[in-house]
Amino acid sequence: MIYLDNNATTIVAPEVKEAMEPYLSTMYGNPSSVYEFGKRVRRSVEEARAIVARLLGSHDAREIVFTSGATESNNAAVRSALKSFRSRRKIVTTRVEHSSIKNLCNALGEEGYDVITIGVERSGTLKWEEFERALTGDVAIVTVMWANNETGVLFPMERIAAIVKAKGLLLHVDATQAVGKIPVDLSGVPIDFLSLSAHKFHGPKGIGVLFIREGVPFEPFVLGGRQERDRRAGTENVAGMIGLSRALELAAATMKADSARVTSLRDRLESQLLAHSPDSFVNGGEVARLANTANLTIPGVETELLLIRLSEFDIAASGGSACLTGALEPSHVLEAMGLSRDLALNSVRFSLSRYTTEEEIAAAVDVIANLVSELRSGGRRTYDQ
Question: Of 205, 213, 353, 377, which sees the most CB atoms within 10 A?
Answer without folding.
Answer: 353
